[in-house]
Amino acid sequence: MSNARVDRDTVRAQEITAEQQYLSMLYAKLDALRQETTQRLKETLRASGGTPQARTERDISTRMYTDKLTQLSAVEHGMCFGRLDLDSGETFHVGRLGLFDEDHEYEPLLVDWRAPAARPFYLATAAARDGVGRRRHLRTSWRKVLDYEDEVLDLDAAEQGSDLGLAGEATLLARLDARRTGQMQDIVATIQGEQDRIIRAGMNGVLVVQGGPGTGKTAVALHRAAYLLYTFREQLSKRGVLVVGPNPTFLRYIGQVLPSLGETGVLLSTAGGLYPGITATGEESARTAEIKGRASMVDVLAAAVRDRQQVPADYTELTFDHEALRIDRRTATQARTRARRSRRPHNLARRIFRNEMFSALTLQVADRLGRDLLDRRDLDDINRELRADAVVSKALDELWPEITPQELLDDLLCSPERLATATRKHLDDDERDELLRLPGTTWTPADVPLLDELAELLGADDAQERAEREHQQREELAYAQGVLHIMEQDEELADEERLRVSDVLDAELLAERFRSTSDLTAAERAAEDRTWTFGHVIVDEAQELSPMAWRVLMRRCPSRSMTLVGDVAQTGALAGANSWHDVLHPYVQDRWKLVELTINYRTPAEIMAIAADVLSEMDTDLVVPRSVRTSGHRPWTRRLPSDGLATELPAMIIDELHEVGDGRLAVLMPPELLAGIGPRLAESLPDAAIGTRPDDLESPCVLLTVDQAKGLEFDSVLVVDPATIVAESERGLNDLYVALTRATQRLGVVHPDELPAVLRGM
Ligand SMILES: Nc1ncnc2c1ncn2[C@@H]1O[C@H](COP(=O)(O)OP(=O)(O)OP(=O)(O)O)[C@@H](O)[C@H]1O
Question: Which top-rank group of organisms is this from (predicted)?
Answer without folding.
Answer: Bacteria
